[in-house]
Amino acid sequence: MQRLRNVAPGLAVGLLVIDVVGMLVLSVVTPSFLSTYNLFVTGRDLSILLLVALAQMVVLSLGQMNLSIGSIGGLVAIIESGLMVRYGVPVPIALAAGLLLGIVCGVANGLLVYWTKINSFVLTLATSYIFAGINLGITHATPFYHIPGEISAFGQARLGAFPVMAAVTIVLTVGLALFLYQVVLGRQLLAAGGNQLAARLSGLPVRRAVVTAHAISGFLGAVAGTMLMAQLGQGQPTIGATWILPSFAGPIIGGAALSGGSAPIIGTVLAMVLISLIDDGLVLVNADPFWVQFLIGALILGAVVLGRTHLSDIVAFVRRGRPVSHEELTR
Amino acid sequence: MRRSQIFASASGRFTGSSLLRQVALLALLIVTVGFWIFFSIAASGFTSDFNLFSLLRFAAIQITIGFAQMVALSIGDMNLAVGAIGGATGMIAGWVMQVLGLPPEVAVLFALVVGLVLGFGNALLITWTRINSFIVTLATASLITGAMLILTHAHPFSLLPDSFTSFSEVEVAGLPVSPLVLVMLVVAAALFFLYRNLSLGREMLAVGANRQAARMAGLSVDRVVMSTHGLSGALAATAGLMAISADHTASPSLGSDWLLASFVSPAIGGTLLSGGLVSVPGTVIGGVLLATISNGLLLVNIDNFWITVFLGVVLLLAVGLDRLTRAAGGAAS
């Protein structure tokens, strides 16, 4: 029961209701919503962006940020496709090298944050430009075309309306939940996010927690980049360039706090479902695609304001006798 | 009396490690001059009037973008909407001039007011909801850019009046200096005066140094937050206006790549990201250094993409050095 508190059940139920209503409305208003192909495409986009959101959530649960998820995803996709197309490296080795690179980028972020004590926002902003610059320096903004057929086929594979890629996302999501809530290191990570000083004083391995969170974040970003490469059928240098907003939107709408200590996996999943419903709905009714950006912004604000009036926040407010201050949130 | 104590503690931070900060500023200046000497020798055409003109104009815009962020940082907030506000107000100015056919003065005034209002909007959301400025401005950046794209259908305004675009082209007093550089210097002087002499500026630093203490000492923190974010919005609008004047067009992608730029110049210049300490001259020199490196590396035929990597490294080094300096100066957190 203790650990359910972190999942923010009230918020999750609210999001679930909104998701279900959204699906019902969409299937009534635009019958093509329920077409096999539309469900497949929407599910595939969702399975990629959910990994991006979880990559941010892991680091947020520690009270830190990772602005370099998108550039890690882009760099990994470029390295993998480059190895396969340019150097004829076998698929499994190229993919393994790419995913390893994602972990290495994440570990670098984590170690730099831990050693230098630089604010993770600024640090990962800087490394995101470094990763993106290396990506563009290698490719000169030209994609690697003609990646091996089995990868493109994986990107298009489906069982009915179910995208095969989504299986990867489901496995990783469940794995992440088990890690954070059942494995000792995962629990320590959440504890360090809740109160880093207390965690340090009680002898928790804070450095290992920080590095692990960033490594997981880099790994999830790498998997997302790989999946987008498979979906596009080419190594696009622009992969990940637009991921900052969705990466924060998912966890924040899903109930994560910037101050850390909570890892609302179910909330993040439901928030990303809602975002892809909005995305898909706007496409289906031929609306201006720019509405997506506007609505995600509105959704973040709305969710955070509503989240503020939550029972747990009121309890915290009464205990502290004052609102959570800005300093506590940014630290 | 309590109020004066706050100011005293804020100015203590300002001058306490003053010598160290002067040294850091001097070091930054020496590094910048060093790069100028290096590129004058290594890169042919670096010292040509044409190149110096465009370098300084680019620096002026980058520095103004940095000011918009520096102001928010001074109270310990962030403004991720600097690029969104700059882009949207630039587009509004373009629309006023091209579609409404009104004179540039009206467009400039209108854009500045909109920038101010958008900044106030950020501040209202921050003070009402007590939500972290990061989340608020992440959301409003998305709202502002989304609304701008919906309203303009992402069509640029490229028929700006000559009287507006030529403002960035003329040379001041025969020197390779655009009037935009003068605009930046006036803004810099005003900000310097604000933080050095005006009570609002001192209050902003006090709020940034310790918000809780400032509140308990009777400062109206919410009022300071309002002024700060309004100013940040107006500065972002100024940068947007400067950019469309230099580009001769108001493009919907304007501002989309300002995030790094907005943090780099203040960070190099010694502005604390946690608030309470700003350096206006540092931001100016930091922006000039940034523009010098980008310009010089291009001239010696280094790929533009590697410059991106370089800027990321420069930001890391600057913030890393800043932490070392503070550790050496013994300043608390």
Helix and strand string of chain A, N-terminal first?
A: HHHHHHEEHHHHHHHHH
Architecture per CATH nomenclature, i.e. the level-2 architecture of chain B = Orthogonal Bundle
Form type of chain B: globular
Tell me how many strands of chain A there are: 2
**Which geometry of chain A do the CA atoms define?**
globular
- Beta-strand portion of chain A reads under 5%
Biggest protein-protein contact in the assembly: A-B, 47 and 50 residues
Number of domains of chain B: 1
Structural class of chain A: mainly alpha
Report the CATH topology name of chain A. Answer: ABC transporter involved in vitamin B12 uptake, BtuC
How large is the count of helical segments of chain A? 15
Q: What is the alpha-carbon Rg of chain A in Å? A: 20 Å
Derived structural class of chain B: mainly alpha
Strand content of chain B: under 5%
The rounded distance between the terminal residues' Cα atoms of chain B is 26 Å
What's the SSE pattern of chain B? HHHHHHHHHHHHHH
Please give the count of helices of chain B: 14
Oligomer: heterodimer
Give the tally of β-strands of chain B: 0
Overall pLDDT of chain B:
87
Fold and architecture overview:
The complex is a heterodimer of chains A (331) and B (333). Chain A is mainly α. Chain A contains 15 helices and two strands. Chain A has helices spanning 9-29, 36-60, 69-87, 91-116, 120-139, 149-156, 165-182, 184-194, 196-201, 206-232, 244-253, 265-284, 291-308, 311-320, 326-330; strands at 158-159, 162-163. In chain A, strands 1-2 form a two-stranded antiparallel ribbon. The longest helix of chain A has 27 residues, at 206-232. The radius of gyration of chain A is 20 Å and the shape is globular. The two termini of chain A are 28 Å apart. The model of chain A is unreliable at 1-7 and 325-331 (pLDDT under 50). Chain B has 14 helices and no strands. Chain B has helices at residues 2-16, 18-42, 49-74, 82-98, 104-129, 133-152, 162-165, 179-197, 199-209, 211-216, 221-247, 258-269, 280-299, 304-329. In chain B, helix 3 runs antiparallel to helix 13 (280-299). The radius of gyration of chain B is 20 Å and the shape is globular. At the A-B interface, helix 5, helix 11, helix 13 and helix 15 of A face helix 6, helix 12 and helix 14 of B.
